[in-house]
Each structure stands twice: as structure tokens, then as C-alpha cells.
Amino acid sequence: MSSKLSVKDKKNFKSSHLGEDIELRVYGHFGYALLLFPSITDNQDEAETSELIDSLQPFIEKGKFRVISIPGITYHSWFNELKTLEERSKTQYDYNNFLLEEVVPSIFTFCGGPVPIITCGAANGAFQAANTYFRRPDLFYGTIALSGTYNIEHYTKGYFDSNCYFNSPVHYLPNLNDSYWLSFLQSKNHVYLMSGSGEGEFPDNSRHLSDILNSKNIPNYLDIWGPEWGHNIDTWSEMLHQIFTVKL
User: Fold this and answer.
1) CA 42 and chain centroid, separation
2) Residue 176 lies in domain
3) Is 22 inside a domain boundary?
4) Is residue 4 part of a domain?
């Protein structure tokens, strides 16, 4: 089934970092930007075809935020058996630059200037959303990460280079002592880590990251739901509805 909320706009450009044509999906007209990563595919249409956008429709129509749905990288990098592990790591590196140097300026352009950006994703998207925020808290306002892993070793099949380290929050955050970067993380209050405890869920991943953040005095909201909540779109829709109703 398709979403009842139509795409407001499509933004197309050639990515120099990814070497391919990119299309962003934009839903809504006002508010801060919710940068949405796909959960189980690399497709920017996933949020619409899964009807996640429908669940966000009341907030979008009220002008709380506009959703920018972007392509993912998991199946082009860590799950791509045609690439060497070194190449997969390089693809993640390129994706980071794509986000910072191409996606963020595009958001500012079609929003008419700098706006707060909150990264958001579930499953594979939770990893990218959290990692993107923690790497550059000077550019992003917060993150919503649902049912994710924050340890890149869960993707890399034993491979671990310096780029893997700097893309693995459970590795680089414990060693983060630079007061400049910590000041951004410690002064913001929009880190939301949620997970169910049902089929396919691994809530200890969220607990582990929350413990690291607490040890660094980085504010975060951890919420683990019960065994009736599994690794699926219904769980994530309900979690987002709660966050946007109660927290944001």
C-alpha cells in the first residue's frame, strides 16, 4: 500500500561522493528537519511504502517538522559481497561525506536557511542516524535511534580499520575527551534510544550505548519496551508517535 501523504518535493542531484544520481524525498512544509534513514533497505521510498510516513502525518501537517527521506548505504557497503571489506569501509567513509557536504547544504537550501536537523532511523537506519549525530553534534540537533546496533563490528565480519573505529559509537565515544566536542553533546537534550524486547530485538545494544553516554554526562532518553514489541514497522511507528507526542 502507498502512503496517503504525498511527497511535497523531490530533490535530485549528482553526488560527487557516491558517484551516482541521488533523489531525496521531502514531506511537509514547516518545522525542523527530520533526516530519515531507511531501516531495512537502502531505498529513500521505504518510509512511504511501509506507511511510516502515514503514521507521522499528523505531526507533518501541523508543521512540527518536515521529513527528508534519504537513501541508505548498508547494502552498498557492509552487506555488499561484491566489495572487499576495505572497499565497504571506504563506502561508509564516502557516505559520511555525502551527508555532511551534500545532504545538509541541500536541506538548508530548500528550507530557506539553516534549520535544526534531527537524525532518525530504525534498525540499520538507527546505526546511521546515531553515528551521524555523534560524529558531528555541531551540525545536528539530536538523534532518534530505534532498535539499532551501535557497534560496527556487528556489520564488518571481523574487519576493523581506523575508519571503522571512527564510525562505531560504542568504540569512539568512551574515548572522547575533547572538551570542544563534549560541550556540544553535553548541552543538547535530544538523544532518544528505544527498543522493544520482542522477536528480533536486542535491547542491550541500546542499553550499552546509553550507559556510555551517561558515563560522559551526555543527556539521553532510554526506553525499552516489552516483549510484545518486535523488530518491525508497527513498533517503530508507535515509538515515534510517543516521542513526537511527549518529548519533541
Assistant:
1) 12
2) 9-247
3) yes
4) no
Domain count, the chain: 1
The set of residues, in sequence order, having a beta carbon less than 8 Å from that of 159 and lying 6+ positions away, is: 85, 86, 88, 89
Q: Per the domain annotation, does 34 fall within a domain? A: yes
The pTM (predicted TM-score) of the whole model is 0.95
Residues 120 and 124: their CA atoms lie apart, in Å, by 11
Q: Identify the band that residue 1 occupies on the pLDDT scale cut at 50, 70 and 90.
A: very low
Residues above pLDDT 90, as percent of the chain: 84
Q: Which three cell numbers stand for residue 179?
A: 572538551
159: exposed, middle or buried (Cβ count in 10 Å: 0-12, 13-18, 19+) = middle
The grid cell for 49 is 511504502
How large is the angle between the packed helices 52-61 and 233-242, nearest 10 degrees?
20
Name the least confident of 3-12, 46-55, 60-69. Answer: 3-12
Q: What are the φ/ψ torsions at residue 95 (nearest 5 degrees)?
A: -65, -40
Residue 1 resides in a domain = no
Neighbours of 47 (CB within 10 A): 27
What CATH number does residue 131 fall under? 3.40.50.1820
